[in-house]
Amino acid sequence: MSKIKKCLFPAAGYGTRFLPATKAIPKEMLPVLTKPLLQYGVEEAIEAGLNTMAIVTGRGKRAIEDHFDISYELEHQIKGSSKEEYLTQIRKVIQACTFSYTRQIEMKGLGHAILTGETLIADEPFAVILADDLCDNENNGVLSQMVKLYEKYKCSIVAVEEVPMQETNKYGVIAGEFIDDNLLKVNDMVEKPDPKDAPSNLAIIGRYILTPDIFDILRETKPGKGGEIQITDALLEQAKNRKVLAYKFEGKRFDCGSVDGFVEATNYFYAKSK
User: Fold this and answer.
1) Residue 237 lies in a domain
2) What's the domain count of the chain?
3) Which residues lie below 8 Å from residue 177, measured CB to CB, with a gap of 6+?
4) Is the pTM for the entire model greater than 0.85?
5) CATH number at residue 223
6) Of 21, 104, 152, 273, whose CB has the highest number of CB atoms within 10 Å?
7) 214-253, pLDDT tens digit by residue?
Protein backbone atom coordinates (compact mmCIF):
# COMPACT_ATOMS: atom_id res chain seq x y z
CA MET A 1 0.00 0.00 0.00
CA SER A 2 1.09 3.56 -0.68
CA LYS A 3 2.51 5.96 1.87
CA ILE A 4 -0.02 7.89 3.94
CA LYS A 5 -0.43 11.45 2.64
CA LYS A 6 -4.00 12.36 3.59
CA CYS A 7 -5.67 13.11 6.91
CA LEU A 8 -9.45 13.18 7.27
CA PHE A 9 -11.05 15.51 9.81
CA PRO A 10 -14.72 14.80 10.59
CA ALA A 11 -15.94 18.29 11.52
CA ALA A 12 -19.68 18.37 10.91
CA GLY A 13 -20.91 17.82 14.48
CA TYR A 14 -23.01 20.36 16.33
CA GLY A 15 -20.91 20.63 19.50
CA THR A 16 -24.01 20.68 21.68
CA ARG A 17 -22.03 20.36 24.92
CA PHE A 18 -20.66 23.86 24.25
CA LEU A 19 -23.93 25.61 23.50
CA PRO A 20 -24.60 28.48 23.24
CA ALA A 21 -20.98 29.16 22.15
CA THR A 22 -21.25 26.67 19.29
CA LYS A 23 -24.55 28.03 17.98
CA ALA A 24 -22.61 30.14 15.46
CA ILE A 25 -19.00 28.99 15.97
CA PRO A 26 -17.87 25.50 14.90
CA LYS A 27 -16.69 23.54 17.94
CA GLU A 28 -13.51 22.72 16.01
CA MET A 29 -12.73 26.45 15.96
CA LEU A 30 -12.91 26.89 19.73
CA PRO A 31 -9.47 28.16 20.78
CA VAL A 32 -7.11 26.64 23.29
CA LEU A 33 -5.10 29.76 24.05
CA THR A 34 -4.86 31.54 20.68
CA LYS A 35 -5.16 28.55 18.35
CA PRO A 36 -8.33 26.66 17.35
CA LEU A 37 -8.60 22.97 18.09
CA LEU A 38 -8.61 22.04 14.41
CA GLN A 39 -5.30 23.81 13.81
CA TYR A 40 -3.66 21.71 16.53
CA GLY A 41 -4.86 18.62 14.67
CA VAL A 42 -3.65 19.84 11.29
CA GLU A 43 -0.22 20.65 12.75
CA GLU A 44 -0.04 17.15 14.23
CA ALA A 45 -0.80 15.69 10.79
CA ILE A 46 1.87 17.87 9.14
CA GLU A 47 4.40 16.75 11.75
CA ALA A 48 3.56 13.14 10.81
CA GLY A 49 4.47 13.86 7.19
CA LEU A 50 0.95 14.27 5.77
CA ASN A 51 0.33 17.07 3.31
CA THR A 52 -3.33 16.78 2.26
CA MET A 53 -6.08 17.69 4.73
CA ALA A 54 -9.56 16.42 3.90
CA ILE A 55 -12.26 18.04 6.02
CA VAL A 56 -15.86 16.84 6.32
CA THR A 57 -17.92 19.88 7.27
CA GLY A 58 -21.58 20.75 7.65
CA ARG A 59 -23.91 23.72 7.77
CA GLY A 60 -22.55 26.73 9.64
CA LYS A 61 -18.92 25.62 9.30
CA ARG A 62 -17.62 28.21 6.83
CA ALA A 63 -15.28 29.59 9.49
CA ILE A 64 -13.14 26.46 9.05
CA GLU A 65 -12.51 27.17 5.37
CA ASP A 66 -11.89 30.84 6.09
CA HIS A 67 -9.34 30.02 8.78
CA PHE A 68 -7.20 27.92 6.43
CA ASP A 69 -7.18 30.64 3.79
CA ILE A 70 -5.50 34.02 3.37
CA SER A 71 -7.39 37.03 4.72
CA TYR A 72 -6.13 39.77 2.43
CA GLU A 73 -7.84 42.58 4.35
CA LEU A 74 -6.37 41.43 7.67
CA GLU A 75 -2.93 40.91 6.11
CA HIS A 76 -3.06 44.44 4.70
CA GLN A 77 -4.16 45.98 7.98
CA ILE A 78 -1.36 44.52 10.10
CA LYS A 79 1.42 44.40 7.50
CA GLY A 80 4.62 45.91 8.88
CA SER A 81 3.29 46.05 12.44
CA SER A 82 4.27 44.01 15.48
CA LYS A 83 0.96 42.14 15.15
CA GLU A 84 2.06 40.51 11.90
CA GLU A 85 3.97 37.82 13.80
CA TYR A 86 0.69 36.49 15.18
CA LEU A 87 -0.09 35.05 11.75
CA THR A 88 3.25 33.25 11.38
CA GLN A 89 1.98 29.83 12.49
CA ILE A 90 -1.14 29.76 10.36
CA ARG A 91 0.79 31.00 7.31
CA LYS A 92 3.18 28.05 7.71
CA VAL A 93 0.24 25.64 7.92
CA ILE A 94 -1.42 27.05 4.79
CA GLN A 95 1.85 26.81 2.86
CA ALA A 96 2.68 23.29 4.07
CA CYS A 97 -0.42 21.48 2.83
CA THR A 98 -3.56 21.58 0.73
CA PHE A 99 -7.14 21.54 2.00
CA SER A 100 -10.23 19.98 0.46
CA TYR A 101 -13.78 19.95 1.80
CA THR A 102 -17.03 18.06 1.48
CA ARG A 103 -20.29 18.32 3.42
CA GLN A 104 -22.00 15.72 5.56
CA ILE A 105 -25.66 16.45 4.90
CA GLU A 106 -27.00 14.35 7.79
CA MET A 107 -25.34 13.51 11.11
CA LYS A 108 -25.35 9.70 11.13
CA GLY A 109 -22.32 8.93 13.25
CA LEU A 110 -18.56 8.85 12.88
CA GLY A 111 -18.66 5.93 10.46
CA HIS A 112 -20.96 7.88 8.16
CA ALA A 113 -18.74 10.96 8.43
CA ILE A 114 -15.70 8.92 7.39
CA LEU A 115 -17.65 7.37 4.51
CA THR A 116 -18.68 10.87 3.41
CA GLY A 117 -14.98 11.70 3.14
CA GLU A 118 -14.33 8.91 0.62
CA THR A 119 -14.63 11.36 -2.26
CA LEU A 120 -11.64 13.27 -0.82
CA ILE A 121 -9.55 10.20 0.05
CA ALA A 122 -10.03 7.83 -2.92
CA ASP A 123 -8.33 4.43 -2.85
CA GLU A 124 -5.42 4.97 -0.47
CA PRO A 125 -4.66 4.57 3.24
CA PHE A 126 -5.37 7.62 5.35
CA ALA A 127 -5.34 9.02 8.86
CA VAL A 128 -8.30 10.34 10.83
CA ILE A 129 -8.05 12.99 13.55
CA LEU A 130 -10.94 14.06 15.75
CA ALA A 131 -10.03 17.63 16.63
CA ASP A 132 -11.73 17.64 20.02
CA ASP A 133 -9.30 14.97 21.19
CA LEU A 134 -6.31 17.26 21.67
CA CYS A 135 -3.04 15.36 22.10
CA ASP A 136 0.43 16.49 23.09
CA ASN A 137 3.78 14.78 23.35
CA GLU A 138 7.22 16.29 23.87
CA ASN A 139 8.81 14.15 21.16
CA ASN A 140 6.78 12.57 18.37
CA GLY A 141 3.07 13.38 18.15
CA VAL A 142 0.53 10.59 18.42
CA LEU A 143 -0.08 10.47 14.68
CA SER A 144 3.67 10.35 13.96
CA GLN A 145 3.92 7.34 16.25
CA MET A 146 1.05 5.64 14.43
CA VAL A 147 2.41 6.36 10.94
CA LYS A 148 5.64 4.59 11.89
CA LEU A 149 3.62 1.57 13.01
CA TYR A 150 1.63 1.61 9.79
CA GLU A 151 4.82 1.56 7.75
CA LYS A 152 5.73 -1.67 9.54
CA TYR A 153 2.35 -3.47 9.73
CA LYS A 154 0.36 -2.01 6.77
CA CYS A 155 -3.03 -2.33 8.44
CA SER A 156 -5.64 -0.23 10.21
CA ILE A 157 -4.57 1.10 13.61
CA VAL A 158 -6.57 2.79 16.39
CA ALA A 159 -5.10 4.77 19.28
CA VAL A 160 -6.26 3.65 22.73
CA GLU A 161 -5.76 4.64 26.34
CA GLU A 162 -6.85 3.20 29.66
CA VAL A 163 -9.91 4.86 31.16
CA PRO A 164 -11.76 4.21 34.44
CA MET A 165 -14.12 1.26 34.01
CA GLN A 166 -17.10 3.42 34.97
CA GLU A 167 -16.42 5.59 31.90
CA THR A 168 -16.43 2.87 29.23
CA ASN A 169 -19.94 3.94 28.18
CA LYS A 170 -18.41 7.11 26.67
CA TYR A 171 -16.05 5.33 24.25
CA GLY A 172 -15.50 2.58 21.78
CA VAL A 173 -13.68 -0.12 23.77
CA ILE A 174 -11.35 -2.82 22.46
CA ALA A 175 -10.05 -6.16 23.60
CA GLY A 176 -7.04 -7.91 22.14
CA GLU A 177 -3.74 -9.63 22.67
CA PHE A 178 -0.39 -7.89 22.95
CA ILE A 179 1.96 -8.50 20.04
CA ASP A 180 4.54 -5.90 21.10
CA ASP A 181 5.04 -3.23 23.74
CA ASN A 182 1.88 -1.07 23.84
CA LEU A 183 0.54 -2.75 20.69
CA LEU A 184 -2.41 -5.17 20.54
CA LYS A 185 -4.06 -7.20 17.84
CA VAL A 186 -7.77 -6.43 18.14
CA ASN A 187 -10.19 -9.32 18.55
CA ASP A 188 -13.20 -7.44 19.93
CA MET A 189 -14.52 -3.90 19.76
CA VAL A 190 -17.71 -2.52 21.35
CA GLU A 191 -19.24 0.95 21.04
CA LYS A 192 -19.99 2.64 24.39
CA PRO A 193 -20.57 -0.51 26.46
CA ASP A 194 -21.95 -0.43 29.98
CA PRO A 195 -19.09 -1.01 32.44
CA LYS A 196 -20.41 -4.49 33.26
CA ASP A 197 -20.31 -5.44 29.56
CA ALA A 198 -17.02 -3.76 28.59
CA PRO A 199 -14.38 -6.20 27.26
CA SER A 200 -11.61 -4.05 28.82
CA ASN A 201 -10.88 -0.46 29.86
CA LEU A 202 -8.91 0.31 26.69
CA ALA A 203 -10.83 3.13 25.02
CA ILE A 204 -10.41 4.32 21.45
CA ILE A 205 -9.51 8.00 21.18
CA GLY A 206 -9.68 10.26 18.15
CA ARG A 207 -6.70 9.00 16.16
CA TYR A 208 -7.01 6.34 13.46
CA ILE A 209 -5.09 5.05 10.48
CA LEU A 210 -7.42 3.25 8.08
CA THR A 211 -6.90 1.19 4.96
CA PRO A 212 -9.20 2.09 2.04
CA ASP A 213 -11.23 -1.13 2.17
CA ILE A 214 -12.92 0.42 5.21
CA PHE A 215 -15.17 2.35 2.82
CA ASP A 216 -16.70 -0.80 1.33
CA ILE A 217 -17.21 -2.18 4.83
CA LEU A 218 -18.87 1.06 6.00
CA ARG A 219 -21.26 0.91 3.04
CA GLU A 220 -22.50 -2.45 4.34
CA THR A 221 -22.48 -1.52 8.03
CA LYS A 222 -25.95 -1.29 9.56
CA PRO A 223 -26.74 1.51 12.02
CA GLY A 224 -25.78 0.51 15.54
CA LYS A 225 -25.99 2.21 18.91
CA GLY A 226 -27.99 5.45 18.73
CA GLY A 227 -29.09 4.64 15.17
CA GLU A 228 -25.68 5.75 13.89
CA ILE A 229 -23.15 4.05 11.61
CA GLN A 230 -20.32 3.25 14.00
CA ILE A 231 -16.70 3.06 12.89
CA THR A 232 -16.17 0.49 15.66
CA ASP A 233 -18.60 -1.91 13.95
CA ALA A 234 -16.77 -1.50 10.64
CA LEU A 235 -13.36 -1.97 12.25
CA LEU A 236 -14.52 -5.11 14.03
CA GLU A 237 -15.65 -6.52 10.68
CA GLN A 238 -12.28 -5.56 9.22
CA ALA A 239 -10.51 -7.27 12.13
CA LYS A 240 -12.31 -10.53 11.32
CA ASN A 241 -10.88 -10.59 7.81
CA ARG A 242 -7.49 -8.97 8.32
CA LYS A 243 -5.42 -7.44 11.07
CA VAL A 244 -6.49 -4.33 13.04
CA LEU A 245 -4.11 -3.04 15.71
CA ALA A 246 -4.67 -0.93 18.82
CA TYR A 247 -1.82 1.27 20.02
CA LYS A 248 -1.36 2.58 23.57
CA PHE A 249 0.20 5.87 22.53
CA GLU A 250 2.79 8.00 24.30
CA GLY A 251 1.61 11.46 25.34
CA LYS A 252 -1.26 13.33 26.94
CA ARG A 253 -4.79 13.51 25.61
CA PHE A 254 -7.48 16.02 26.51
CA ASP A 255 -11.17 15.50 25.82
CA CYS A 256 -11.93 18.99 24.54
CA GLY A 257 -15.43 17.89 23.61
CA SER A 258 -16.22 18.32 27.31
CA VAL A 259 -15.98 21.56 29.27
CA ASP A 260 -13.79 19.95 31.94
CA GLY A 261 -11.34 18.61 29.37
CA PHE A 262 -11.29 21.90 27.50
CA VAL A 263 -10.42 23.83 30.67
CA GLU A 264 -7.78 21.23 31.58
CA ALA A 265 -6.18 21.57 28.12
CA THR A 266 -6.21 25.36 28.33
CA ASN A 267 -4.49 25.31 31.72
CA TYR A 268 -1.95 22.74 30.51
CA PHE A 269 -0.96 24.65 27.37
CA TYR A 270 -0.92 27.94 29.24
CA ALA A 271 1.50 26.54 31.81
CA LYS A 272 3.58 25.01 29.02
CA SER A 273 3.83 28.36 27.22
CA LYS A 274 5.43 30.06 30.24
Assistant:
1) yes
2) 1
3) 184, 185, 187
4) yes
5) 3.90.550.10
6) 104
7) 999 999 999 877 788 999 999 999 998 888 999 999 999 9
